[in-house]
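Subgroup meeting minutes
Present: P.N., E.W., G.H.
Scribe: E.W.

1. P.N. recapped why we're keeping a running log of single-chain structure predictions: easier to compare across weeks, and new members can see raw inputs and outputs side by side.
2. G.H. added today's entry (338 aa).
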Amino acid sequence: MKRTRWAVASAIALASMLTACSSGQTDTTAGNGDSKPKSGTIKIAYLQKQGDQQYFVDEGAGAKAKAAELGNVEVSMFDLGTDSDKAINALDQVIAQKFDAIAIVVPDQLIGPQVIDKAKQAAIPLIASDDVIKDAAGAEAPFAGFDGAAMGEKVGTEAGTLFKQSGWSAADTRIISAYKQDLSVCQDRVDAADKAFTAAAGAEVKVIKLGTDNSAVDAQNKTGALITANAGVKHWIVYGCNDENVSGVVTALANAGLGANDVIGVGLGAYLACKDWQAGTATGFKSALFIDGRQVGASAVEALVKKVRDGVELPAKTVANTAIVNKDTWQSAGVKCS
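Output recorded in log:
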């Protein structure tokens, strides 16, 4: 009889254990994870594509500054370059090392489902920084960054206004729109810029799409052939996905003999545009949309800490502020030019 009672008790205990284990994750939001509030030091991994670009350097600085402000938070930066395999390997590494939370700027949005699934399986909260990623069902991970369309609209409006003020003819003017063409955030920016330019300029100017890897070197190298193919163009307008693209194109135009007065470059970032303004040199970089990477890094870390420390769900979207600046206003706007 005792043996029977013991067997029944054991069966009940086992059933309770199985029920507890099968409860799984109750949060269906991609990237939120099911980790429980934690006390003590919080370890956050910040994985970035092209981590050597100034914007991402600033983002890392903002993340670490916010960590210091919140206290008992450690942020480790990982530079993924443009390598998706490296991104997955780094993600496996931080999961194995039991980091408490992850922020990631993916080199390629196509790895989004894999990234989200790995973090979810490990019950680690994840936030997508700068570039939106989705899981296999199409649900977006929590996001910290900028509104791509709104950014592009501001850039296009500024470029169109400057064109209208220049008195140039649309017939001998061309727009170079330089960006990484398989990146959705870049597409959002330049599409909005194209529409806003036409509205602000009151004229149709031919747009030449220039595919790049979003680096200044690649943009500069690829602009040479474009200039040769458009030898009759007198004036150029330049915008794109980031400051690197505009800087590369503006440099190539200058090297080809185009004077600063024949180029209207509107950057996106301001961290490269400000270098010409700081030096006081004549430049085709007329203005730029100031985006503060520090603000994005800080926002991502703050949201992750609240999730890990207090159990507060990650916000679906955290959108940072932007502002157009030029050689006269960049310093007062808070642009850090290093």
